[in-house]
Amino acid sequence: MDFQTQDDFSLTNNNSPNRLVLALSSKHFTEINIVMSHQTGGSRIPKVNPIALHTYIKQNISQSEMITNMRHTGQGKVLFTTSDPICAAQLLTLTKLLDTSISATVIWENITLTCKQQHRSQN
Known about the structure:
By secondary structure, the chain is of the alpha+beta class. The chain has one domain (17-107): Alpha-Beta Plaits, CATH 3.30.70.330. The protein contains three helices and six strands. The chain has helices at 17-25, 50-60, 85-92, and strands spanning 29-38, 67-72, 78-82, 96-97, 100-106, 112-113. The radius of gyration is 16 Å and the shape is globular. Mean pLDDT is 77; it is low at 1-9 and 115-123.
C-alpha cells in the first residue's frame, strides 16, 4: 500500500524537500524506513565500505545523527531507519549514493506512528 498525504502525493524523491518536510513533519513517527535502490531497475547498489557510506551520509544529510540504522539488504538496496521526519525528507531527496544514481522511497508497511491522544473535558 502506498501512503498518500492529504495533498495526495507519494512521498518519494520526486518531490521537493519543502513539500516532503511539510508532509512528514505534521506527523509523529517512532520509526521511518527509507529504502534506496539502484535507479536502473534490475541493478544492485554496490556494497561499499560502511565508513565511506557513513561519511558520505554525514556530509550530505544535516540530520544524519538521527539515523538509527543504515545497512545493505539482500536485494542490493540500502535501508535507512530514522524517527526524524526532516532526516527522512533529506534522505528522500538524494539522487546519488556515492557514485551510484539511486531512487529513494519510504517503506510504509514497516512504519510506526506515534499517535497523540487528546482528552476532551466533559461539560
